[in-house]
Every structure is written in C-alpha cells, then in structure tokens.
Amino acid sequence: MNAPTQMIARLRSAVPLQLDYGGPTIMNKPSSLTYFERDMASVVHPQTNLLKHLQTGPTIVTHGEGVYVYDDAGDRFLDSGAALWCNSLGYGSERVARVAYEAMQKLTYFQLFRGYSHGPAIDLSERLLQIAPVPMSKVLLQCSGSEANDSAVKIVWYYWHGLGKPERRKIISRQGSYHGSTCVAISLTGNSSYHKSFGLPFDGFIHVDSLNYYRSAKPGETEEQFSQRLADALEATILREGPETVAAFWADPVQGNAGALPPPKGYFEKVQAVLKKYDILFVADEVICGFGRTGSMWGSQTYGLQPDIITCAKQLSAAMLPISAILMNEKVFDVVKNESNKQGAFVHGFTYAGHPVAASVALEVLKIYDEMDIAARVKSLEPVFLQQLDGLTDHPLVGAVSGVGLIGGVEIVKDKETRASFDAGVDIGGRIVENARKNGLILRVASNRIAYSPPLIISEDEIVDIGTRTRAALDDTLAEVRAL
C-alpha cells in the first residue's frame, strides 16, 4: 500500500474526538424532548420551505464515517455531494481534531485588525500564495465563501476608486452562477429564486447568458461556436452598459448552482480576450472548484484562467471549520495599498477573519492534500466517475451528462427527443432526491441537473455505487411520474 493510499485509509477509519454532553439538554437541564422535537420548536433552516418543514420535520444526522453519514434511526447514506461541495476529506479526522485542539490551547482567538497578526494566519497566507494558479501578491482571510465574494466586490470597487474611476462599478456574472448569500454575493448570483421577496439583486449587477450547451445551443452549433456566441454576447453587454462603467467579471470555473456544469469548449479563452480588450478585472470564484475538485489544484488551472482576484473556501478546510480567502495580484494590491494610505486605513474586516484555530486546521488540511497528491488522485478517479455518468445516458429521464475531475451532472428531461423539462408542479427534483434517500444516497438536484461532488477520499467502488443507487432512484422516479 503506497503512502497516499495509507493516508486515505487512516482518514476513512479515523474516529473524531468524542465529547460527552450527557444527552439532550435545555439550559443545562435534562430534556425529555427528542432532537427532532426540539428542532421543530427552535431551528430555522436555510434553503428550506419553512412551512412544510413544520409538517415533515428534520433529518437528524448523528455522525459520519468516510463518505457516509448516519441518521438517528441508524440508516446510512452515501453522500454524493460532500455535504455542500465542501467535505473533501470525508467525515471524521482525529488528526485534524488534534490540530484544532492544540491550536485552541495555544491561542483561542486574536484578530488581524489594525496590524495585529499570528503565526497560523501568516503561514496559511504564505501557503496559499505558493500554490496559487497564477502569481498572486497578498491574501485576505475571511470566514466563508459568501464573505470572500462580498469582500472581493468591495476590493474591486476600492481598486477603481483608487484609480480615480469610481464610475466603474457594474459587475457582470452569469446565469446559473452562485456566489454566496450576503446581499452583495446573492446579487452576483444568477438565479432569480434567490432574489425573490428580498428586494434583490442590487442595481449594477448584470447577468449574461447561461453556459448550458445542451439546453441553449442552436441546431448544428458546435461547442466552440456556442462559446463564441456567449463571448460575443458578453462583449455586446459591455458595450451596451458602457465599458467605462464595468468593474469586473465574476466566474466560477464549473457552475455548481447550474447543476455542476462545466464550461463549453473554448469558453474561457474567448471570454478572457473580451475582458482584456476592455480592461475589466476578472474574479475567479474557486469556492467550489479549489483544492483538487476538477483534477487540478484549482479550476483556474483546469481551464486556463488568468484571474486578477481569486476567492476560495469550502475545501480549504475540508469544511472542518469556517474559513475562506481572497487572493489578489500585485496590480490590484498596489492600488488598494495606496488607496488605504490615502483614506487612512483599509476600513474593512470581519471579527473572526483569519481565526487562529480555523487557519491551523486549513494548514493541516493542505498538508494532507499534499501527502495524498490530491489533484492526481482526483484525476485518476475521473475516468471511473465519468463512466458512471455516461452509463446513465440510456435512462428515459436522462438527456445528457457532463463532468470533470470529481464534479459533474446529469440533465433530467421529460422527453429525450425534444429535451423538454417537467412542469414545476411535478417536482421532479424533489422526487429524485427523496427516492435517492430511499436507496441510501444523498443527492443534490439543481437546475434540472443531478449535481455530484463526492468527497475526494471516495473509492472506485463507492463511485460505482453512486451510479447504481442513482439508477435505482431514477427508476423509482420514472415509475412515479408515469403513474401521475
């Protein structure tokens, strides 16, 4: 057994540190209520129909091991999505828990405000600059992907103010993108369902066409031609808005919210040429793709991106503690530095940004990635993963598949010939998710696509198992919709 394989075996078998809380309590007093009942009485759940939740209740996850999680009924589920794209090293790591424990003993907390610093923040920032896909100058640590993208927007605006061009304020992103849940980050997001009833998006956030070649290509149009049309549409949007008013273009290398959708061939090459022509900053949102997911350490490497700013989170700490980072190149930092001097300070920050315990955990996770040669491992699993996706194309509900590394998706259709989608009332996504649960599989469905992003420690056999369980879920769903 080689060293990376031994490392994976240890991670998969590791049991996290256990703390005995003495069972359910309320205000330190024993409670006769179950966690299910207490959740119903007290918890608001994100991305959840809150009325229906009060009728159906939560699934209580009690523990995890490797690529599996267990509920309070003892049922085991294979997690095909690494929770929220982030749990790259699976569930349970005593090694990382020990690092967090030792870090907390040494320095429970200190801020990075007003020139203070500490070793973990410095070490992590240096390491991120060392592994960056393109030369970067400085790192701003934050707490989440949403915070990273929100902060990056402020940096972009600060940059153009520093150059005496405050009118360059508009941000362009793509339909199908997701960039976070703050008011600014959700304005970046190209999905109207995230905006309804919140009075969002803010003005000045512009969303260009979807990248879905299967859904949006014209008859006979090649992927390269489709990409050129998208690049031409981007240029037309810039000209319509006025290049002198456009600050930046935002892009996630693979669109998670669009259903783990990779870009069509030639897309980023053509788009970057447009951005360069009009001197528009390019921000790569690597929150999902960073740290091995696409078969390279960064999605930017997989697709030849040359960003001015990179945002990252999720797999930076393998989701074990909240942390994120913004990397900016020297061109951007030089202006930000000078503008901060002009204003007296760079007046931005979050209390917990660069938390010493979270930074220590992220450093250890990056060490584990090095020991596993994580990008090479993902690349070696890519053929098996893509084979499982391809194997579903004969199913009546499947229109097309696409993927890269260990991220990809399956297009769900009502009719394979016309590529028509199911009516919203059928809730095809909800049916597939529920039938997957019945088959012991946690699936995510987004934008009529099943989206996969399993933990990076997954084995070939477990990837095959995902394919088998997905087919069973699709069969059960097909039987349901035919009976409607």
What does this structure look like?
- The structure is a single chain.
- With 484 residues, this protein is α/β, with parallel strands linked by helices.
- It has two domains: 198 residues, Aspartate Aminotransferase, domain 1; 276 residues, 3-Layer(aba) Sandwich (Aspartate Aminotransferase, domain 2), CATH 3.40.640.
- 42% of the residues lie in helices and 15% in strands.
- It contains 17 helices and 17 strands.
- A seven-stranded mixed beta sheet has the order 6-12-11-10-9-7-8, with helices on both faces.
- Strand 10, helix 12 and strand 11 form a beta-alpha-beta unit.
- The longest helix is centred in the last third of the chain and has 23 residues.
- The chain is globular.
- The protein starts with a helix and ends with a helix.
- About 2% of the residues have low confidence.
- Keywords: Aminotransferase, Pyridoxal phosphate, Pyruvate, Transferase.
- Belongs to the class-III pyridoxal-phosphate-dependent aminotransferase family.
- InterPro entries: Aminotrans_3, Aminotrans_3_PPA_site, PyrdxlP-dep_Trfase, PyrdxlP-dep_Trfase_major, PyrdxlP-dep_Trfase_small.
